[in-house]
Design goal:
With 214 residues, the chain is α+β, with helices and mostly antiparallel strands. It has one domain (5-208): Kinase associated domain 1, KA1 (TATA-Binding Protein). Helix content is 32%, strand content 21%. The chain has five helices and six strands; from the N terminus they run H-H-H-E-H-E-E-E-E-H-E. It has helices at 5-18, 22-43, 54-60, 90-103, 174-185, and strands at residues 79-86, 119-124, 128-134, 141-151, 154-163, 195-197. The chain has a six-stranded antiparallel sheet with strand order 2-3-4-5-1-6, sandwiched between helices. A hairpin with a 3-residue loop joins strand 2 and strand 3.
C-alpha cells in the first residue's frame, strides 16, 4: 500500500509556502522552476556516458535512488521523460511535430473536449524543439522539449514535459499526453520502428493516462 507520508509532506510544504510573504514566495517559485528546468535540460543532453536506453535502465532498476516506488510511484513534481525512436529521419520528425503544433495553436480543436490545442513553439534548432502547451480549462502552462539524434534506422528522441506550476504533483498523465498527442496527431507513431520507453517512475501517471481527455 502506498504510504501517505510523501503526500502529507507535500501538502504541509504547500501550506507553509503559501503562508510566506508574496515576494519570498515568488522567489521560491522561480527557484523551484529553474531547478526543474535545469534537471530536465541535463537529462536530454547527449554525451558518451548518456546512451540510448537510459529510461529503460531507470524503469528496470528496482534499486534506483531516483524515487522510491514504495513511498510514491511518480516523480515528486508533475513531469514526464520519454525516449522515442522513429523510422524516419530527424528532419522529418521535427517538421511533422512543428506542423502539428501549428495546426493546434488555437483553441478550436478543444471545443468538443480534450486538450489537443493551445500549443506553441518557443524555439527550434536542427537538434532541438521546445514549446509550451496550455490546458484549455485551467490555463496551466507546461514546458516540453524534444532532443533529436540520427540513428542508422531513423531518429531517436529524448523528450520531457513538466508543469510550470511549482507545487504540481499529479497531472492525470497530462505531461505525457502533451508530447504523445503531437506524435499521434502527426502520425509518427504509425511509422516503422516506432518505439516508446518510459514508466510511472519518471512519467507522472503514465500507465493511467487518457490522451483523448488530457
Amino acid at each position: 500500500m502506498t504510504s501517505p507520508i510523501p503526500v502529507l509532506c507535500i501538502f504541509a510544504c504547500i501550506a507553509f509556502c503559501h503562508a510566506m510573504p508574496q515576494g519570498n514566495l515568488n522567489l521560491l517559485d522561480n527557484a523551484i522552476l529553474q531547478d526543474l528546468n535545469d534537471k530536465h535540460e541535463n537529462y536530454i543532453e547527449f554525451d558518451q556516458d548518456n546512451e540510448i536506453g537510459a529510461n529503460q535502465d531507470q524503469c528496470d532498476d528496482k534499486n534506483s535512488t531516483i524515487n522510491s516506488v514504495d513511498l510514491f510511484p511518480y516523480p515528486l513534481h508533475a513531469s514526464c521523460r520519454v525516449e522515442w525512436t522513429f523510422g524516419v529521419d530527424c528532419t522529418e520528425v521535427a517538421a511533422r511535430l512543428v506542423n502539428q503544433i501549428d495546426l493546434w495553436t488555437g483553441p478550436e480543436n478543444c471545443e468538443g473536449g480534450g486538450e489537443k490545442c493551445l500549443y506553441k513553439v518557443t524555439s527550434q534548432s536542427k537538434r532541438r524543439l521546445r514549446g509550451t502547451h496550455t490546458t484549455p480549462v485551467s490555463f496551466y502552462v507546461d514546458n516540453f522539449s524534444f532532443r533529436f539524434r540520427p540513428t542508422r534506422y531513423g531518429c531517436y528522441s529524448k523528450s520531457y514535459s513538466y508543469s510550470t506550476v511549482p507545487y504540481a504533483v499529479l497531472d492525470y498523465g497530462t505531461n505525457y499526453c502533451n508530447m504523445f498527442n503531437l506524435i499521434d496527431g502527426s502520425g509518427l507513431n504509425k511509422e516503422p520502428n516506432f518505439s516508446e520507453k518510459t514508466c510511472d517512475k519518471i512519467c507522472t501517471q503514465y500507465t493511467t493516462a487518457d490522451c483523448e481527455v488530457y
